[in-house]
Amino acid sequence: MQVLYKSTRSNSQPITASKAILRGFPADGGLYVPTQVPVIEKPMSELAQMDYQGVAFEVMRLLLTDYTDEELLACIRGAYDDKFDTPQIAPLKKVGDAYYLELFHGPTIAFKDMALSILPYLMTTAAKKNGSGKEIVILTATSGDTGKAALAGFAGVPGTKIMVFYPKNGVSAIQERQMVTTVGDNTRVIGIRGNFDDAQTSVKQLFNDRELVEEMDRAGMQFSSANSINIGRLTPQVVYYFYAYTRLLKDGVIREGEKINFTVPTGNFGNILAAYYAKRMGLPVDKLICASNSNKVLYDFFGTGTYDRKREFILTTSPSMDILISSNLERLIYHICGDDPDQCRAFMQELNEGGEYHITDDMRAQLSDFVGGFATEEETAAQIRAAYEASGYVMDPHTAVAGSVYTRYREASGDSTVTVIDSTASPFKFEGSVMKALGQDTSLPDLELAEKLSEIAGVPVPKAVSDLKDAKVMHDIVCDRDEMKEEVRRFLGL
Ligand SMILES: *Cc1c(COP(=O)(O)O)cnc(C)c1O
Q1: How much distance in Å is there from the Cα of 11 to the middle of ligand 1?
Q2: pTM over the 0.85 mark
Q3: 19, 83, 93, 112: the active-site residue
């Protein structure tokens, strides 16, 4: 079955996966969605015999149907190699009542590596397949983790340039250091005065800036996106849901066909949307538990059917989830309104103009798989402490948001279905908040704090952190939102 991709906002001609990856998003401001969701035919017990790369191939070939097997295998082999610090790529750890799927063993110790280590391969392969011959310019807004993971993926990749904008005061100290120490002539990192939503909105405007796009075209360049709106990000994320399931099967925790729950710490709704697609592709999943921090727009949405972004933006200890406009939710909205682009466009217009929209009862009825929850800052810190005291396991604040939401869901619902919690970052990436939650002295310099955390958690300091010690600052530009376009032109030499 050939899977094609079309816009959530209009009935324009569907295009191949490689074209959708190359373009990033359609010109009408929508997002690409598959015209049909393929269903996996291989039994889970067969996938359980495969390694991560094997499972990745079986899942991704169903979604990226215009890539040849050879092309896809080359992408997978290039991405999931010893950049990851374990051959399991995404190990599953039992802690208390739940299984934590550790998605942070890649080069930048956050789950974005799962997709961003393969995206450059998918994109350069797509450029070759489609004979575009143009230089690809990646423009990215980041709440912290995407930036470094995208930089790590694209730095030094021939035929590409990458530019990252981050909220100057909205990322952790380690996150900022990771980004501004990036080497590579094709990279540029810029802090902006504003929050993540400001950065993301401005980047979207730049993508759709006619004048800029034409200037670039004349210079032989084209924009693409490494944000989670690119289906080249979404597709690799579907893989680890299958992987987690098949590991539980292999270990005899579940029987073939038995349903499990997933709990996902959520910001832009990309990760949990991948779980939703995995379910539609035939993975036995019951509940998708969507965990938010104090920016609980999604919790309110699942509870009431109203999406309302008109509220205060709260800076939390889980900054990668400090988001009020969850871009990928648009794809879910499109599907639950019966794949109707007109209705979807109308909702997005309401959001854009009035800051809110209300879905219909019919649409709400289709959300019964989703459970919304949120954790306050106190609950997040309490979860880090409680897990450590009970089992010696140290988790990062994003993961702790999910852990806390899951604990309360399990108590309130009595649902004891086997549950996997996505562990989206290494505790070392957010060591200040983690050590504070554990009641430790946090006045030490970053790297000494990491050593201390290493002793407490009984795991070595990841290379991504120890390497920062001698790294030189390569990027120091800070600008206002309205200066971003000029910065892009300067970087591209236009
Ligand atoms: C990006 C990120 C999230 C949120 O993922 P979404 O796909 O945006 O919902 C959660 N935790 C960490 C550590 C992240 O980097």
Answers
A1: 30
A2: yes
A3: 112
